[in-house]
């Protein structure tokens, strides 16, 4: 029996009713975007349905939605354009809850039973929707957790990193961690994986936050709460205890319902330590305390009071204006990156081609020697936790160090440093993906590790089909690091008539397909390129790389299909 419009309506309502809030009524409330409770999301969707329903009288639109809500086969990349056509092209108010429910459905199926049959590019494109706009927490949290946990070990590090960024950049860390702690459907090991992964990206987000003008001094908050400056407060004997002991005292007072003493300790904790670290210890202490078994109201009471104190600190420390500005800055940066890396003829390449012989995310982690300077740079940019998720070998650490040194002799403003840290985050994830795919950065015998186009050409390395890694352009984070491939060497004459300009295309590390627009790489000798090391100050540099043969073969097949489509 075929599905109809009302079947779609009832299916989405059923999905909403199935949302689990885990009794966190202090977190999920009416009129609290993006933490709406289930009833409020239900009501909002019903309002959207009344507007959207007439549009579904178009049989093509109805069938498109049936294929999304009741899939009989794996989704393909055509569904991205379908979502735009259905929900974002009308002049009527956009039904964002309706759209997000469809995205959540596709993410759930794609990262679940269909994971071996869909292009990883589809997951990335779906996550991109929520890098540009914040969905309701309860709609998206379950499929995002499913991606990060990757229970079947089929999702690569890049996709999981994007999923973590969606949560961290859209929601408050205390809301995320409390939800995970109280989630009865997650095993303890899974919770720890989520805590570790999300903490890594929260550290980066906090670094961004520290760069914004408008963050209030902790001294002012300490004076308001305790009557002394923050430094004076830390010197008091009652607070000079270990982190874990302070958390235990906080929990003990709450168990005795001594809220006044608990609030004082809780306020000191949020002044002194990060919310995610506090919540991880609270979770540990509750899980090992027989008096605080999971379902008891007392554990819920502890989380409620913790959340209240953290929210009090957040409102005192981070103004709404600063929070909004940072969210907008991150969204704008992501929008530029997404636009720069759109895949060419993306819907023409069958998923079966992309996933065939594709190295999966179960690649074993290795313990590599750590360069001291590399660890210093990680600390400077709050990237140490991200590195620990997926270590990289010393040669990749050297690449990171060389590019991190860009800022050593520059006076960067707040916004410039923000873009630089965002660039270094993407660079580290790029190098981690190299390690995951067994792509090796070659040192080479001449010039430095990072070379400019003239140096590559002087070594006769720029040939048709040659692959390199481009460092991208750090300034304003306009061009992310990427694989590039020579399409046509010596294609265009330079200003003196010498054919020293070559046509390259960027290549997707997820699919091996061409991305963005082809570009001109000029190898004319200028700026003493034959003498100086490449600094990548205001232009991308290039790395020589060795790509495993099996991956090259898969990429070749993808690119040949794209070339055929472009010719037609």
Poorly predicted runs: none
Separation of termini? 39 Å
Q: What composes the largest sheet?
A: 6 strands, antiparallel
Sequence of strands across the biggest β-sheet: 1-6-2-3-4-5
Q: How many strand units? A: 6
**Helix run count:** 24
What portion of residues is helical?
55-70%
Going by helix content, strand content and strand pairing, the class is alpha+beta
Shape: globular
Mean pLDDT: 87
Listing every helix as H and every strand as E from the N terminus to the C terminus, the arrangement reads HHHHHHHHHHHHHHHHHHHHHHEHEEEEEH
Gyration radius, in Å: 26 Å
The percentage of residues in β strands lies in 5-15%
Report on this model:
- The protein has helices at 5-17, 38-52, 59-69, 78-88, 96-110, 120-132, 137-149, 157-170, 173-181, 188-210, 218-226, 230-235, 243-255, 259-272, 275-288, 297-317, 320-340, 351-355, 372-380, 384-389, 394-404, 414-437, 453-458, 549-567; strands at 440-442, 467-470, 482-492, 501-507, 514-522, 542-546.
- The protein is 55% helix and 7% strand.
- It is globular, with a radius of gyration of 26 Å.
- With 568 residues, it is α+β, with helices and mostly antiparallel strands.
- The model has no long low-confidence stretch (mean pLDDT 87).
- The chain has a six-stranded antiparallel sheet.
- The protein contains 24 helices and six strands.
């Amino acid at each position: 029996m075929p599905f109809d419009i009302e079947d779609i309506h009832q299916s989405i309502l059923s999905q909403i009713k199935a949302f689990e809030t885990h009794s966190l009524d202090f977190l999920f409330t009416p009129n609290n975007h993006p933490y709406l409770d289930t009833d409020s999301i239900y009501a909002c969707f019903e309002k959207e349905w009344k507007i959207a329903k007439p549009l579904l009288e178009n049989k093509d639109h109805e069938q498109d939605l049936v294929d999304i809500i009741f899939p009989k086969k794996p989704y393909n990349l055509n569904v991205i354009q379908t979502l735009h056509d259905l929900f974002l092209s009308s002049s009527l108010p956009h039904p964002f809850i309706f759209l997000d429910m469809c995205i959540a459905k596709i993410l759930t199926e794609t990262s679940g039973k269909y994971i071996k049959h869909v292009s990883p590019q589809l997951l990335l494109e779906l996550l991109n929707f929520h890098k540009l706009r914040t969905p309701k927490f309860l709609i998206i949290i379950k499929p995002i957790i499913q991606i990060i946990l990757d229970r079947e070990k089929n999702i690569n590090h890049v996709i999981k990193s994007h999923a973590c960024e969606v949560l961290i950049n859209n929601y408050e860390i205390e809301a995320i961690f409390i939800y995970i702690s109280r989630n009865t459907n997650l095993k303890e090991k899974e919770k720890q994986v989520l805590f570790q992964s999300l903490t890594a990206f929260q550290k980066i987000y906090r670094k961004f936050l520290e760069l914004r003008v408008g963050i209030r001094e902790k001294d002012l908050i300490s004076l308001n709460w305790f009557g002394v400056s923050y430094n004076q407060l830390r010197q008091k004997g009652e607070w000079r205890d270990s982190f874990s002991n302070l958390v235990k005292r906080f929990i003990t007072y709450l168990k005795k319902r001594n809220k006044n003493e608990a609030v004082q300790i809780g306020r000191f904790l949020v002044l002194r330590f990060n919310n995610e670290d506090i919540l991880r210890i609270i979770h540990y202490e509750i899980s090992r305390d027989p008096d605080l078994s999971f379902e008891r109201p007392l554990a819920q009471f502890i989380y409620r009071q913790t959340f209240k104190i953290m929210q009090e600190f957040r409102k005192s420390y981070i103004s709404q204006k600063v929070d909004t500005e940072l969210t907008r800055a991150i969204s704008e940066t992501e929008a530029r990156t997404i636009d720069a890396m759109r895949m060419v003829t993306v819907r023409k390449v069958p998923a079966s081609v992309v996933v065939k012989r594709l190295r999966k995310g179960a690649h074993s982690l290795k313990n590599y020697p750590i360069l001291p300077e590399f660890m210093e740079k990680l600390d400077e940019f709050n990237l140490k936790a991200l590195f620990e998720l997926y270590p990289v070998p010393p040669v990749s650490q050297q690449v990171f160090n060389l590019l991190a040194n860009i800022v050593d002799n520059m006076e960067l403003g707040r916004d410039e440093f923000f873009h630089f840290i965002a660039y270094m985050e993407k660079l580290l994830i790029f190098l981690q993906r190299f390690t995951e795919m067994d792509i090796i950065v070659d040192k080479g015998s001449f010039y430095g590790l990072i070379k400019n186009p003239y140096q590559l050409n002087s070594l006769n390395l720029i040939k048709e089909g040659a692959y390199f890694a481009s460092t991208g352009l750090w300034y304003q984070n306009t061009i992310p690091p990427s694989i590039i491939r020579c399409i046509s060497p010596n294609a265009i004459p330079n200003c003196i008539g010498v054919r020293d300009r070559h046509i390259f295309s960027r290549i997707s590390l997820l699919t091996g397909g061409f991305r963005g627009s082809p570009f001109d790489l000029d190898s004319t000798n200028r700026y003493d390129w034959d003498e100086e090391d490449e600094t990548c100050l205001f232009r991308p540099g290039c790395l020589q790389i060795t790509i495993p043969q099996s991956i090259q073969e898969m990429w070749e097949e993808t690119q040949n299909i794209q070339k055929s489509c472009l010719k037609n």
